[in-house]
Amino acid sequence: MKRPDWQLPPGVDRGLWDYFHASDMAEQYEAQIAATPLAQLDIAWCERHFARPGRLLDLGCGTGRLCRHFALRGYECVGVDLSAAMLEVARRLSPASAAERIHWLQANIAEPLPLPEGSFDYAACLFSTLGMVRGAAARAAVLENVRRLLRPGGTFVLHAHHRFYRGLGLRRMALQLLLSLVRYPAAGDLTMPQAYAGAPLTLHHFTAWELHRLLQDHGLALAEVLGFDATGQPALGWNIYGWLIVARRFLHAESDSTPSGTASRF
Q1: Is 262 inside any structural domain?
Q2: Is residue 133 part of a domain?
Q3: DSSP bridge pairs for 153
Q4: Which 8-state DSSP code applies to residue 83?
């Protein structure tokens, strides 16, 4: 029986729910990711910033590519996803040599996660997972999970799409600029047909200011930013398709200053 809209979990709309439950989505997901430049770019970015083996939390882990990669290198990994189908594939693809270092958790990343506070050295939210979460309050709840679960000084890696990327087209860019200027609540929410015959899928595109405030409001200090184009090459201004971002949890909960090091800016 189809779940009615009013029973959908926080941060999940009909399009995202249909996406999670499409029969062939999880089976094709690995191939789809592998075909994009971001799949290599974000792994390399994480390798650079997750400097030594520790405990890694992957929020919206999908079929588990990040956890598999780092578990094979000695990291203890927890992958969280709301889709049972995704996690079934993740378990099946886990190599035997690394399976004991990976725990899979079916849960909504926009709700408090049943994991100990300050128990992770690293956290990641990749492949625009945060942008798939509907509503500012739900996205803030994801960042609150990051703040709570990272140890002080722990490292967070985030991928997000740029609201004013020129590849979206002049008309759409102009509309998003207007909606942003008037602070329309749904500014940045761009809806597109999805490949799995479900309801249209909405992906939130961020401004640099929005990301900076979201991180800072949840105890995360911006440390480094990489803007890149649709081919995965470094980019600036209107050519930025998305960002890979590194932030670190404040050393003290009450502090509003960055940890050691100089923060890069957007």
Answers
A1: no
A2: yes
A3: none
A4: -
Residues 143 and 160 sit within 8 Å (Cβ to Cβ): no
Q: Give me the half-sphere count of Cα atoms (radius 13 Å) on the Cβ side of residue 219.
A: 23
- Closest C-alpha to 197, from 15, 9, 62, 75: 15
User: For residue 36, what is the domain's CATH number?
Assistant: 3.40.50.150
Domain count, the chain: 1
- Which of 13-27, 29-43, 85-99 has the weakest average pLDDT? 13-27
Q: Which tokens sit at 188?
A: 């940045």
Catalogue the long-range contacts made by 253-262 (C-beta closer than 8 Å, 24 or more residues apart): 253/152, 253/219, 256/216, 257/221, 258/221, 258/222, 258/223, 259/153, 259/221, 259/223, 261/223
Please report whether residue 208 resides in a domain.
Answer: yes
**What's the one-letter identity of residue 196?**
Y
Return d(Cα 249, Cα 222) in angstroms, integer. 9
Nearest to 77 by CA among 66, 92, 86, 63: 66
At 254 the pLDDT is 47
For 2, the 3-state DSSP assignment is coil
The answer to whether 119 and 152 have CB atoms below 8 angstroms apart is no
| Span of 60-69, 92-101, 104-113, 197-206 with lowest mean pLDDT | 197-206
Structure tokens that stand for 7 in this block: 């029973």
Q: How confident is the model at residue 262 (pLDDT cuts 50, 70, 90)?
A: very low
Q: Is the pLDDT of residue 252 over 70?
A: no
For the cut 90, the answer to whether the pLDDT of residue 11 exceeds it is yes
pTM comes to 0.94
User: Which pLDDT score, from 0 to 100, does residue 255 have?
Assistant: 46
- Gap between the Cα atoms of 251 and 219, Å rounded: 9
